[in-house]
Design goal:
The protein has 2 domains: 193 residues, Isopropylmalate Dehydrogenase (3-Layer(aba) Sandwich); 124 residues, Isopropylmalate Dehydrogenase (3-Layer(aba) Sandwich), CATH 3.40.718. It has 12 helices and 12 strands. Helix 1 packs parallel to helix 12, helix 8 packs parallel to helix 9 and helix 10 runs antiparallel to helix 11. It is globular, with a radius of gyration of 20 Å. Bound molecules: nicotinamide-adenine-dinucleotide, 3-isopropylmalic acid and manganese (II) ion.
Length: 348
């Protein structure tokens, strides 16, 4: 029997996870679900944002579903030593699972172009997969410090780290339009020069069927808004991927509808790309769609249940035609949004 560990986390995490877990239970009643702690709430209860019991649970399951972690800007959690803050718990979780490739698909669903802040003719063309490197760069490089009046971080990558994430991107391109854009800042950064070389070498030796382009990150930020239809698969380093994926995420209408999958050699990690949204937490109005679509990715990538995954995606598209949370300009609640998806799935 498959086992999924749910880490609801902080802020709106528990609200969006409740809806997503209902969808999972409806479509895969045989899956065993276990709950564990992560983030600020975990710190308050155990003294660690990634407690030992959570580490054990996630290393012994098939997939992890995560809500969100973190507090408001003025939360006392932000004054803790960095290693004890909620976000560090998330980074430790990613590291423990070895999930080096973060897949963030950005697609405007047919018929839902009106949700996009872009013109409909531009929005209609958007179908991009962002592959973000997740375990390297400035996030994990040990060369970092605040030294009195001076502070620094370092973006280091080794060839093997670039190679393994680029392979994931090339393979994904092969299942799509066979187009890959590698995003860097090679006009300024040495680390980008190495990155570019590794990706180009893979193209020339193993992925000659994929059309590869190299573009600078500042230019991509602009072109993602101006002509988003030009991209199929994008691969980039951790920090660039963090920023570009939030930017791309609003194209379908709201950060609240965007799922993600983080993959390595062990259990996969599935989470919406938005944060804990302290401004709306506890009000019951958060959009659960990003987390529900993360369940679809979980079923597809970790449990091999493609048919159920596609059913969720179709149900979400149907439900959004009439039921929308406030981030999408509607007035429905989290529970109503979740119930609408379940109704499309034939529950009730
Ligand atoms: P955020 O994503 O939490 O919120 C940005 C804006 O989007 C807010 O106005 C929020 O209300 C809205 N929003 C986000 N998700 C929504 C949803 N599902 N439905 C409706 N509206 C939604 O970003 P932030 O305010 O910069 O960060 C808040 C906290 O979350 C910080 O502590 C940050 O570190 C953390 N964070 C966590 C994750 C994660 O757990 N993966 C990701 C990003 C940020
Ligand atoms: C994300 C988040 C995280 C990141 C934070 C909360 C550590 O912004 O998942 O995109 O920067 O990776
Ligand atoms: Mn982010």
């Amino acid at each position: 029997m498959s086992k999924v560990v749910v880490l609801a986390g902080d802020g709106i995490g528990p609200e969006v996870c409740a809806s997503a877990v209902q969808v999972l239970q409806h479509l895969a009643p045989d899956v065993q679900i276990e709950h564990a702690l992560l983030g600020g709430g975990a710190y308050d209860l155990t003294g660690s944002p990634f407690p030992g019991a959570t580490r054990e649970a996630v290393l012994a399951c098939d997939a992890v579903l995560l809500g969100t972690v973190g507090g408001a800007q003025n939360s006392p959690w932000n004054s803790l030593p960095r290693a004890l803050r909620p976000e560090s718990g998330l980074l430790q979780l990613r590291q423990a699972l070895g999930v080096f490739a973060n897949l963030r698909p950005v697609k405007v669903m047919p018929g839902l172009e009106d949700l996009s802040p872009l013109r409909s003719d531009l929005a209609r063309q958007v179908d991009v997969l962002i592959v973000r490197e997740l375990l390297g760069g400035a996030y994990f490089d040990p060369r970092r410090a605040i030294e009195g009046e001076h502070a620094y971080n370092t973006i280091g990558y080794s060839k093997s780290e670039v190679d393994r994430v680029a392979r994931v991107a090339f393979e994904a391109a092969r299942t799509r339009q066979h187009r890959l854009t590698s995003v860097d800042k090679a006009n300024v950064l040495e680390v980008s020069e190495l990155w570019r070389g590794v990706v180009q070498n893979l193209r020339d030796t193993e992925y000659t069927d994929v059309k590869l382009e190299h573009e600078y990150v500042d230019s991509v930020a602009m072109l993602l808004v101006k002509t988003p239809g030009r991209y199929d698969v994008i691969v980039t380093e951790n920090l660039f991927g963090d920023i570009l994926s939030d930017l791309a995420a609003v194209i379908p209408g709201s950060l609240g509808v965007m799922p993600s999958a983080s993959l390595g050699d062990g259990p996969g990690l599935y989470e919406p790309i938005h944060g804990s949204a302290p401004d709306i937490a506890g009000k019951g109005v958060a959009n659960p769609v990003g987390t529900i679509l993360s369940v679809a990715m979980l079923l597809r990538h970790s449990l091999g249940r493609d048919a159920e995954a596609s059913r969720i995606e179709a149900a979400v598209q149907q439900a959004l035609a009439t039921v929308r949370t406030p981030d999408l300009g509607g007035s429905h609640s989290t529970a109503q949004m979740g119930a609408a998806v379940l109704a499309e799935l034939g529950a009730g």
